Amino acid sequence: MALQFDTSLEPHYGIAERLSPRIARLLAPNPGPFTFRGTGVHIVGAGDRVAVIDPGPDLPEHVAALKRALDGRSVSHILITHTHKDHSPAAQPLKEWSGAKTYGFGPHAETNDVEEGGDRLFVPDIRVADGDEIAGEDFSIACVFTPGHTSNHMCYALAGEKALFTGDHVMGWSTSVIAPPDGNMGDYLRSLEKLIARDDAILYPTHGSPIAPPAPFLRALVTHRRMREGQIAACLAQGDDTAPVLVARLYAGLAPMLVKAAELTVLAHLEHMMEDGKVTRDGARYRPIVKAP
Question: What class has domain 224-288?
Answer without folding.
Answer: mainly alpha
